Amino acid sequence: MIIVLKPSTSPEQIQHFTDKLCADYDVKVNRWDGIQSTVLGLIGDTHNVDIEYIDAQDIVESVKRVQEPYKKANRKFHPENTVVKINDKVSIGDGSLHIMAGPCSVESEEQIVQIAKAVSVSGATLLRGGAFKPRTSPYAFQGLKSEGLDLLKIARKETGLPIVTEIMRTSHIDMFENVDIIQVGARNMQNFDLLKELGKTKKPILLKRGLSATIEEWLMSAEYIMAGGNDNVILCERGIRTYETYTRNTLDISAIPIIKKLSHLPVIVDPSHASGKSWLVEPLAMAAVAAGADGLIIEVHNDPPHAWSDGAQSITPNQFDSVAKKLFALKKALQNEN
Amino acid sequence: MIIVLKPSTSPEQIQHFTDKLCADYDVKVNRWDGIQSTVLGLIGDTHNVDIEYIDAQDIVESVKRVQEPYKKANRKFHPENTVVKINDKVSIGDGSLHIMAGPCSVESEEQIVQIAKAVSVSGATLLRGGAFKPRTSPYAFQGLKSEGLDLLKIARKETGLPIVTEIMRTSHIDMFENVDIIQVGARNMQNFDLLKELGKTKKPILLKRGLSATIEEWLMSAEYIMAGGNDNVILCERGIRTYETYTRNTLDISAIPIIKKLSHLPVIVDPSHASGKSWLVEPLAMAAVAAGADGLIIEVHNDPPHAWSDGAQSITPNQFDSVAKKLFALKKALQNEN
Amino acid sequence: MIIVLKPSTSPEQIQHFTDKLCADYDVKVNRWDGIQSTVLGLIGDTHNVDIEYIDAQDIVESVKRVQEPYKKANRKFHPENTVVKINDKVSIGDGSLHIMAGPCSVESEEQIVQIAKAVSVSGATLLRGGAFKPRTSPYAFQGLKSEGLDLLKIARKETGLPIVTEIMRTSHIDMFENVDIIQVGARNMQNFDLLKELGKTKKPILLKRGLSATIEEWLMSAEYIMAGGNDNVILCERGIRTYETYTRNTLDISAIPIIKKLSHLPVIVDPSHASGKSWLVEPLAMAAVAAGADGLIIEVHNDPPHAWSDGAQSITPNQFDSVAKKLFALKKALQNEN
Amino acid sequence: MIIVLKPSTSPEQIQHFTDKLCADYDVKVNRWDGIQSTVLGLIGDTHNVDIEYIDAQDIVESVKRVQEPYKKANRKFHPENTVVKINDKVSIGDGSLHIMAGPCSVESEEQIVQIAKAVSVSGATLLRGGAFKPRTSPYAFQGLKSEGLDLLKIARKETGLPIVTEIMRTSHIDMFENVDIIQVGARNMQNFDLLKELGKTKKPILLKRGLSATIEEWLMSAEYIMAGGNDNVILCERGIRTYETYTRNTLDISAIPIIKKLSHLPVIVDPSHASGKSWLVEPLAMAAVAAGADGLIIEVHNDPPHAWSDGAQSITPNQFDSVAKKLFALKKALQNEN
Fold this sequence. Notes:
homotetramer, eight-stranded parallel β-barrel, four-stranded antiparallel β-sheet, 14 strands
């Protein structure tokens, strides 16, 4: 961490500040006196140095991190890829391509089982489906709740597909015990209390990027989970909020190679929520695979116009079959090339 | 709600869709056949019509709301200003100016009592202070928690100032029973489960705008609380996330008159979090009052460089005294003018 | 165009407004009276109806376009892809993949010829290079200007590669007569006077998307050129400005399939400016090809650390050779699949 | 400027880089060796050091400016406020409040003279009006052009109000010789060729902030004009593009005190374009004055629903009279207070 002091700072103030830094943190302080200003450099483990605290000092002109503020999620301290193993067949982050597919909301046993069977045949290796739904309006359908979880388990039994579903409050963690991957939605990415509690479990967590979260904030939220002892975190890019309104969100395709560089965690992409339009799912999914994503999460509905939520962005099982074929062919072509 | 159908839609499809709309919602459907396309207009109470559901229909080209999707928060159905009464002296939204002041984090009894006394003398009518702190880093100070709440109550006893503090999880609602205003932070604005539970209480809620929430989404979150039966909602504009990095956030000053037009709820401004810089607190607070805000929430710390959080944006009690004088003088000048 | 009138509008006002619309534009007006409000529908050619004018009427509650405001750039009126033919070997938009490669700035004959030869061997079919440089600072290198154009022509003669370079003012159009593709930079995307003058030429124009331009505004700028009679427009997505600061801009990968749907014009991608980081060029270029781009424009410098501009995002000829191989292999795999 | 080198950098590379920096720029280089990395500090005049060039070096981890990249616009080198004197009565930046009022577009002699007289009576000290109009659509009204300039001069003769109007191309500078303030629109803020040419004149320039320009980029555009020798620059905040669509743009009210701190140039606010809604003009103008703006530019039209452009955001002369009264009363109250 590099700290630029204001020109007017006295030697006594510098000494006092330096002493305090050494006392508060496990760091050494190097000092460099320029003509206009003095610069301090913190050596050692600075990931827990509070940059806001430093910045608030009267004598500080500005501060710059050299090290990233996250440690457990940082590739520098963990060079190998993390592989999140779901079962004997599904390991996310191992170089293969995994597709999580299913409806936005679980609606009935018939619906979820039918979709699960269809996407399984087409190559999906996990089943997604919402039981508890975060909706902007209190008057919109809020999900089948615990009944939805039960239906997902039935579909799992029928198809063998592990299930992925979203949690919305801390007190539900016990209820999600038998879920294979617990999803934290974009709106809860900085629900720190929820992250802390999930950190105490060993469950694989699918952590969606917040609507306007920076990549660093997203990794800091992963760090919350990992700091509690749970390393099974899968990141999910699902589009960010920008000024462009043609798409529901703007898919930040750059996030994939950036996460791969900064972190060892697997990263997947949600082209359905990123775009909000079913006809954009295929090209965005193709781009995600070409950019190096470990997987995809795609909304598939047997009857999108009658979906209880997010129908506009869902594709049918037939469309999914065609998209999945192209995605696996692309993945294979990319692997042959390297 | 105006629904534009695709040119290829058949009369049978239109009839079927119309019948379904009338069956599902309490609306009538008017139809208008143009040369290129047919337009349907929904008459009646459309606030609970799911626009995503409509948009997902194969035959729908596009949809446009005419009515707002919020009802209880809507000024059209409640023309008079809502006044949130905290105690005999403090009523927010009644035309007077209220300032909530205090430290970002409660740190000690001495600190909070000293600040409370100082800001009270300068004209603040409520005491703010964080006991549970949402921090981006798991390694940063997370607040004194329940001890912080106790210290706030001591400061309230010493000064008579009602207290405002942030809640971070549903299971803490009982613990906040004796708090005067419960704050929902920006990161929890769409923690719908928390909003629902707060809707079951009668507590005044200070609902901060999310980092990238639209005004409509913010009002929809207020609607979540109000739909549960709790009308005591105070909105708080605290800056939005934009591409500009000079300030921590970009204060959306337009939000004040817009909220006043769209809703009957009181709206206050947080110039400290909006800017992240103490020297911007005064001009932004002045702008907020001139734009019609019902109040302000300002971070005041007796020793900002040693604050445990957010010191860079805190002002000292002396600075607060000067700012408050100017704000009340401005408010008086504006009232004399009208 | 659908116009919702305010509830209080009188029949006389509606009649007067309807008459005026029919007189001013080549449209018919359909009217539909609901219980709460009246809706007018404009039938006919509405692309030149001024939506701001409509919106300003006292009696108008809101307006919604059904047709797009661009016509010549619109795929609805021109279903076949536009192919911009540069010479006998290079046709952009014909289904093949074209890569424009070269340095940000032309620096010397040796530099530009050397790079041109190298990228040509690796498969680039056009040479890019800046002679006039738009720089944020007046103190930064502004390009070799007309000398730079001469050097580009030398490189073209040596390699046969057509040249692409940026124009910055209307009065330079004559000077650019012998350039193969004239580039309009992001900062000039709404320099309407420049667009109008370029519309009077027959030159192929590479129109970069503005830093915060919507897709519709971008197509409207293409429309400016086309309205003047020049249909040779190639669109270039180069990243948009968002809150994320890790990358220089955020590549809007969705723009590629969206442009393909809305317009018949070819669209290419600039992964160098989009990211600002050389190590991101490969994954973003791969994603662009997978998403359907007609080409790429990539910064290549023989000695990036000594580049006079944008060195951080340039790759070396060796790196380019490796990237190009992967891109052409990917393109081939995608073609085989379909 | 602080440069952090990569851990792997050799002493020879550091020496070579240091020598090059000293040779290329008028700086000294201080060096500080930490355990993990070496930091270089550039001492001297770094405003013309190309940060992109530095950042492109293989051995550079990251760079941080300590000094701002603008010099002539920088308050540090010019502590007194710049006052732009238009005539004997109008000096912008001298502590008084100036209002520029008038229609978006000049439409006829009758229109512009009538509005000019009205706003003059209400206290406006300058007349605004567009002759050349930048419009998103090539099919929209583009202004009366040189005829519009003539009409503005007639209105000036009738009322004595100096005139402000927008220039759109370099070749028009002679035509604007007799205009009092030349406006550079938001879309041309980085039309660097236009800025350079305006820098060669002595004309007062009203420089609007670009749609997505940072405050630093805006000041760099002012620097372009000033570097040419023209110090008569007035900055105009007119709203920035964000994700919020309720308003046309988001007024960045913080920009006013920030410009006042960073620069000595006067700054005014355009509440009409910032909001796009006439009913928001008053509260935003009030906020601007309270935040310290030197003036305002407000769209006034005698008949907004029949305005040829931007009618939705124009207010009538009667409304302007009421707003102006409140603004001057507010300004007076603020002056009395200090």
